[in-house]
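input
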Amino acid sequence: MRFAITVSDALFDAGWEPIRLFSTPTEGRISPTKACIERAGALRISIELSRLCERDLQRLAEDGCEGLVVASYTWRLGDWKPYLPHAINFHPSLLPEFRGPYPLINGLLARRTRWGVTCHKLAPEFDAGDVLAQRAFDVAAQDPHETLDLKTQMAAPRLACQVGREFPALWAATTPQGEGSYAPLFGEAERTLDFGGTVEQIMATVRAFGRF
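output
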């Protein structure tokens, strides 16, 4: 299957052929893109660092692209259905819980003991499309942000490989999400330590935000 991708390269292992990379300029705060851009450059794949627009979708259709794969992409995408037969997104939570741009911190603050990664159809609303597959794992009570981030990074390519190998069946048997929850992006107030709180409250914030 020929595909265009917005960040992750895990589908290479499933035999998919990348034809174009759409990414955001590297800023490194949440989703560093430098390594992916360098990989695309080494493979001589066309790289776009501006927002994917309707003309780009038209060009993908002309190039025989069969699917758009989205992961950690900052910008909202337009209607892909007139141009491509498939479009999927990889999201770092067990949807429908914790939709949003970076939900790991919210999950730690909520003391979730299970976390995971979801692959779903791309929909007009962020992170709301029908689910193709999920991969879940345990979260220990003392896991800090960096540990949850690493576990998520390990689960994502495994899920991508499953999706790549079983794509037709998974696409045909998707499950609607139903109602869920939204995790807004954190600001200065949320990541500021309040030393008027208890030690437990302070350390919970430290674990949840980690390097942030």
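quick obs: Residues 4 and 60 are 8 Å apart (CA to CA).
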